[in-house]
Amino acid sequence: MDFLNALVNITNLLIIPATTYGAQLALGALGVTLIYSILRFSNFAHGDTMAFGTIVTIGITSVFQSWGISLGPLPTALLALPFAVVVTAALLVGTDFAVYRFYRAKRAVPIIFVMASLGVMLMMNGFVRFLAGVKNISFADGERFIIKARDFKEMTGLAEPLGLRTTQVLTVVVAVIIVAWLFWFLNKTRTGKSMRAFSDNEDLALLSGINPNRVVIVTWVIVALLTTTAGVLYGLDKGYQPYVYFQLLLPTFAAAIVGGLGNPLGAIVGGFVVSFSEVMITHVWKKVLTYLMPENLEPSSLMQLMSTEYKFAVSFAILVIVLLFKPTGLFKGQSV
Amino acid sequence: MKKLLLATAATALVAGAASAEGHGSEVKLGVILGFTGPIESLTPDMAAGAELAMSEVTEAGNLLGGMAVTPVRKDSTCVDAAAATTAAEELIAEGVAGIFGADCSGVTGAILSNVAVPNGMVMVSPSATSPGLSTVEDNGLFFRTAPSDARQGVVMAELLMSQGVESVAVTYINSDYGKGLADAFEAAYTEIGGTVTISASHEVGKGDYSAEVAALSGAGGDRLVVAGYVDQGGGDIVRAALDAGAFDTFHFPDGMIGDALGGTFGDEIDGSFGQAPGSDNPGYGEFVMLAGDAFNGEGTYASESYDAAALIMLAMQAAGSTDPNVYKEFVEAVANAPGEPIMPGELGKALDILAEGGDVDLVGATGVELVNGGEAAGSYRVIEMSGGEMVTVEYR
Q1: Which residues are CB-contacts of B253 (< 8 A; sequence separation ≥ 6)?
Q2: DSSP code, position B232
Q3: Which of A96, B8, B345, B387 is 20 to 30 Å apart from A57, CA to CA?
Q4: B207 to chain A: which residues are within 8 Å by CB?
């Protein structure tokens, strides 16, 4: 019984939230990594692209709701998501035509692209606030819980509760589907193979007749899919707020770099490394250990490695350690 | 928002009309509150409370021989000290004779030391409660109608003890307000035998609070004390704690007591308690009636705001001057006994008494008494969440 309680406690407070957060970060990091490997720069406007995609989804969702369309127990936002991806893709391709194409034609060095993306970030930042203001918007509807904490306690008779939200399961399921599709696309389809070729050696790819404009446009469309999905899943789970999305840029980049920039598998692993380390190292292990240890050996202190103020320091410390020993990240990516 | 616009428009109209009738002279008072930021859901009622006092005085038409009082609103943002300082400097440039505000402790301290003291400007805050502001160098220019959190800490500790809650987990916003309150509470609570299992800070504007909630839950406790702001951070932690079933009941200090609380969580937090400054003195009811439909007179710090603005204007009348360095000496005198007790709605009468050289004691909406160099002695309204509504259960 004590062992079960400890297990439920860890699942409820660590595994479920960290898996959800990790999946959201992984989707964001995948986008960062795709842009880095194919377009060859770190896109600072990534967080605000997520915010833009989410706000478009929120707009379309409210239109659907006013028409009385819903998905029953699932959030209506899922139905609005494909439309929002199209709008976001249009914005990204438009940005590419207006800003990045110019520098690509001049074969500018990557740092120029990064600075240009910083400018794009500031403009998107303002645009998103102009569209929907700065307030917290909650747009999740449908069934909120799969397992309610209180019901679980009554059902099982355990001392520890376990809560599972619909959005948490949804996040993981949708993330798995999108990642599986992306890997199939990159490895099996002609377009995907041409993208990889373009990423490996641009000149050789051009020589073999790959159309660079097509590769660029397809990349932005996939990035729109990844960012909008990540943003919407995050917003459904935790509520939409532009400032928070902007702040997500840091853990997202940390995830992409830890995993190895340019390596899609690395981005996914990186997302989970960041989310789990944030939660694990700042956790108070007293309760779990009290369940597991024999009665007279119960810990009297909190058994907390680091206080929660340092949770951001944790992911950056991991970043530094990984870069020190493996400059290309956990999986073989490009060195930064 | 509509209400707010209406109230502002009405105030401006009344002020305009009165100044046309009067001697054509006006006195400007700064109203600096966080109209955007973590407590943006509280500030509209606070501003309306202060402006109610101002329009009342303007209508009475007997402040220093008939001066009209015009409020000038600025945004303190509650959290950004640099933005708040700039806003306060704008007020000085516009020639205000006194500043009503600011709201949050951090920005209030910043405005006080960067703007008010160098420019010799009187500040009366309705809601800055950090214990640190009691000892700050203010040249006698700073007053507050809200009690210090040193007092709130004691009230909260005694309240929890009287309900038989002997161990709590505490999370506080990483700011002057949160840290000050958490420290004051922990000291008071442990002194009377309670146990604080963990005292962990949280930041505003972070999306993910699962690490904080996990740590708080791991440490355990009968209740979770959330010394944060309802619109940011604090609210998110309550949400995450409820979803994970980490805590069922909470204790909310003043920053969490807002309309958003009942609206967001409904009956999920039934059985939780909290306290915010407030009193059962008869003036409170009269103030709520005066507010009527124009704004929510029971809003957190709305009544303190009325009293803060009233204090500035009564002190001006007592001093016979709008010069802050002259009337600052009179603020405590008009707030405290001896003198004719003044209820909300009686500011005109008070001005008459002062003009004739009499003495007044502003009771106002909160029964304000200034002690300890210009801060309210403090009584608190204890609320309980019941059926998704905030119910006032007692006063301490």
Answers
A1: B149, B152, B156, B181, B185, B225, B226, B227, B274, B275, B276
A2: B
A3: A96
A4: 234, 238, 241, 244-245, 247-248
Q: Which of residues 24-43 of B touch A (CB under 8 A)?
A: 36
Q: How many domains does chain A have?
A: 1
Residue A269, chain B, CB below 8 Å: the answer is no
Domain membership of residue B264 as a residue range:
150-276+379-395
Can you read off the two tokens belonging to residue A79? Answer: 């139905």
Q: Based on the fold, state whether residues B264 and B314 are members of the same structural domain.
A: no
Nearest chain A residue to B230, by CA? A136
**Which pLDDT value is given to residue B19?**
41
- Which of A57-61, A198-202, B247-251, B360-364 bottoms out in mean pLDDT, i.e. has the lowest? A198-202
Q: Could B206 and A247 be called an inter-chain contact, meaning their C-beta atoms sit closer than 8 Å? A: yes
- Complex prediction ipTM: 0.77
pLDDT at site A185: 93
Distances (CA, A) of B276 to A7, A184, B366: 39, 58, 12
Say whether both B9 and B49 belong to one domain: yes
Name the more confident of A306 and A121: A121
Q: Mutate which of A16, A246, A250, A284 to disrupt the B interface (most B C-beta within 10 Å)?
A: A284
Instruction: Tell me the two tokens of residue A308.
Output: 């929660």
Q: Nearest-CA neighbor of B229 among B260, B183, B207?
A: B260
Q: Tally the domains of chain B.
A: 2
Does A312 map to a domain?
Answer: yes
**Is B245 in contact with A283 (Cβ distance < 8 A)?**
no
State whether B388 and B241 are in the same domain.
yes
Q: Are residues B225 and B351 in the same domain?
A: no
Judgement on whether residues B193 and B269 belong to the same structural domain of the protein = yes
Q: Considering the entire predicted model, what is its pTM?
A: 0.74
Q: What is the mean pLDDT of residues A42-68?
A: 92
The verdict on residue A330 lying in a domain is: no
Tell me the three state secondary structure of residue B67: coil
In-domain check, residue A289: yes
| Residue A336 lies inside a defined structural domain of this protein | no
Of the pLDDT bands very low, low, confident and very high (cuts 50, 70, 90), residue A215 is: very high
Cβ <8 Å between B208 and A288: no
Same domain, B120 and B26: yes
3-state helix/strand/coil string of chain A: CHHHHHHHHHHHHHHHHHHHHHHHHHHHHHHHHHHHHHHCCCCCCHHHHHHHHHHHHHHHHHHHHHCCCCECCECCHHHHHHHHHHHHHHHHHHHHHHHHHHHHHCCCCHHHHHHHHHHHHHHHHHHHHHHHCCCCECCCCCCCEEECHHHHHHHHCCCCCCCEEHHHHHHHHHHHHHHHHHHHHHHHCHHHHHHHHHHHCHHHHHHCCCCHHHHHHHHHHHHHHHHHHHHHHHHHHHCECHHHHHHCHHHHHHHHHHHCCCCHHHHHHHHHHHHHHHHHHCCECHHHHHHHCCHHHCCCCCCECCCHHHHHHHHHHHHHHHHHHCCCCCCCCCCC
Q: Tell me the chain A residues in contact with residue B205 when contact means C-beta distances shorter than 8 Å.
A: 241, 243-244, 247
Both tokens assigned to B365 = 């909406």
Peptide bond into A212 cis (omega under 30): no
Q: Does A335 touch chain B (CB under 8 A)?
A: no
Same domain? For B107 and B206 the reply is: no
What is the number of residues in chain A?
A: 336
Give mean pLDDT in consecutive 10-residue pieces for chain B, a chain of 396 residues. 56 47 73 86 91 94 91 92 94 94 91 94 92 88 90 90 91 88 92 90 80 86 89 84 87 84 81 84 88 87 92 93 92 88 92 91 89 82 85 83
**Range of the structural domain that residue A95 is part of:** 2-325
